[in-house]
Amino acid sequence: MASGEGRRGHQNLVPLAALISREMRSEKMEKPTVRFGHAAQSKKGEDYFLIKTDCQRIPGNSSSAFSVYAIFDGHNGNAAAIFSRENLLNHILGALPRGLGRDEWLQALPRALVAGFVKTDKEFQRRGETSGTTATVVIVDRWTVTVASVGDSRCILDTQGGPITNLTVDHRLEENIEERERVTASGGEVGRLSIYGGAEIGPLRCWPGGLCLSRSIGDVDVGEFIVPIPYVKQVKLSNAGGRLIIASDGIWDALSSESAAKSCRGLPAELAARQVVKEALRTRGLRDDTTCIVVDIIPPDNALPPPPPPKKKNKLRALLFRKKSSDSTSKLSKRLSAVNIVEELFEEGSAMLAERLGNEGNSVESSSTSGIFVCAVCQIDLASHEGISVHAGSIFSTTSKPWQGPFLCADCRNKKDAMEGKRPSGIRVS
């Protein structure tokens, strides 16, 4: 009897190799395949891009890998775009606390993006160069996509069976009413270019400077109501995956989000990027630098994006195919709508630095324990008497808590005050 029970117990045991295989399959299901492609046509030489697929949250740990894709569309020269490509990512990662688990790291990422953008702008403006740049940064960590953007280099998401979603907001004064109101409330003037005879031409611009955008990195010669604080959005895809199209305005001036997505469906990422650029040039010609990055987040079971439908060979075959395709598409849409295509985790577009840095999840040390603060923007160490709370005297805070962090150095506080219209732009405070 005992031996029989032993045999039955032995039969219930799972071999170690089978357990390892199960774990590997589980890990595979958790991690999508990420593929990308890039294409560009240059007109002015002011578009730059960054693709970095070997980032690791924990150095040496491949399971903590994530990838970064970014586009910088410069204006008034390429210096700001080049500087941002070389420094922005390091500033973002430098603003993230060490030793975080994956979930905590993703939660801290939006605030780190804000700090990284502001620090990059601050450092570039110290150089005294007058160029500026848009910046759109996309961080892909498994199924989670985090996007931060200033300017009008857009990122869209195309999910099979779901709508096309804009993951960025265009900071163009012509279209963005909220940004126009913010700029004028902070002391800027918004209007079109006036020519001889009083006629007005072209898009709405911010004066002084004549910039069409309300947010950018650089532009030291423009009022400080042109801010580097990004719109940030974080989403989690379902296991159906999705396609990201990141492009400069050379694409979006020619194509809508919908037409760009539809023009490259069924193509692998590299060919898709080329097709989007080709379609933009066919529609509008090469009037501006035109840059596109396509990123496919592919479920483990699918090696390639879905192929386009075959060409019609005869009317009967076409009718049969269309009926079958329609039915399968309908079933697919219903199945995908049953699971959320995209789960929104975070969205914030405020141009007010105090609101964006907040006081939750502080990365700074308490003065009562160490006597040292860290500037939430530029990350320099501060003595306890040097730190200025983002809440101190803030007219935008619902409560005034000047003893709470995050804390800013005097330079970053001056920059913050100027951006939020608390002192006239251009007046430097020493």
Automatic annotation (TrEMBL):
* One Gene Ontology term of the molecular function aspect: metal ion binding
Q: What's in the keyword line of the UniProt record? A: Hydrolase, Magnesium, Manganese, Metal-binding, Protein phosphatase
**Catalytic class of the enzyme:** hydrolase
Top-level lineage group: Eukaryota
Gene3D superfamilies in the record, alphabetically? PPM-type phosphatase domain (3.60.40.10)
Q: What is its EC number?
A: 3.1.3.16
Entry protein name: protein-serine/threonine phosphatase
Protein species of origin? Acacia crassicarpa (northern wattle)
